[in-house]
Design a protein that fits this description.
Radius of gyration: 15 Å
Oligomer: single chain
Helix content: 10-25%
Number of helices: 3
Order of helices and strands: HEHEEHEEEEE
C-alpha cells in the first residue's frame, strides 16, 4: 500500500495486480484515462494486501516505459547497447531491474506526440505507453 500510494503521489496511475502475477485483479480500462484516487487505492490494498502494483503508462501518468527483456531467447540488453551506441543518451531517468534480469526505463511522456504500446521494436525491447502498464517495485513475480 505504501508504495502504491507513493506512485500515486507522483501523479502516476496505479492498479492492483494479482499476487505474484502481471495480471490485473480489476477491470482496469477506465484507469487508462482516469487516475484512481488515494481512497480507491487504500480500498484495493485493504481488500488485496498481497497485490502487486501496476503502473499505468501513457499520457494519464505522463510516462513511457521502455521494457528490456533478457529471458529465454530475448536479447534486450544487446539491442539496448546497440541503440545506445547509435544515439547519444539524452537524459538520466528512473530504471527498475525486473525479476527476470531485464529492466524498465522510465521517460516523460512527450507533450506533442501519441505513444502507444509496441512489442519487439528490437529483440527484447517493448514500449509501454497509452493502453499499457508495467509491474512496479516492490512487486513479486
Amino acid at each position: 500500500l505504501k508504495h502504491a500510494l507513493m506512485y500515486r503521489q507522483k501523479g502516476w496511475g496505479v492498479i492492483p495486480l494479482k499476487p505474484k502475477s502481471k495480471l490485473p485483479i480489476i477491470d482496469w480500462k477506465k484507469y487508462q484515462t482516469e487516475l484512481a484516487s488515494e481512497e480507491q487505492i487504500n480500498e484495493w490494498w485493504t481488500k488485496w494486501p498481497e497485490a502487486n502494483i501496476g503502473i499505468v503508462t501513457g499520457r494519464i501518468s505522463g510516462i513511457v516505459v521502455i521494457d528490456i527483456d533478457v529471458k529465454d531467447d530475448k536479447k534486450g540488453d544487446e539491442s539496448l547497447m546497440e541503440l545506445e551506441t547509435k544515439f547519444e543518451k539524452l537524459t538520466t531517468t528512473i530504471e527498475a531491474i525486473t525479476p527476470t534480469g531485464g529492466k524498465h526505463i522510465y521517460f516523460k511522456y512527450p507533450e506533442n506526440a501519441t505513444i502507444g504500446c509496441k512489442t519487439d521494436i528490437r529483440s527484447g525491447i517493448d514500449i509501454r505507453g497509452d493502453g499499457g502498464y508495467v509491474v512496479a517495485p516492490p512487486s513479486v513475480l
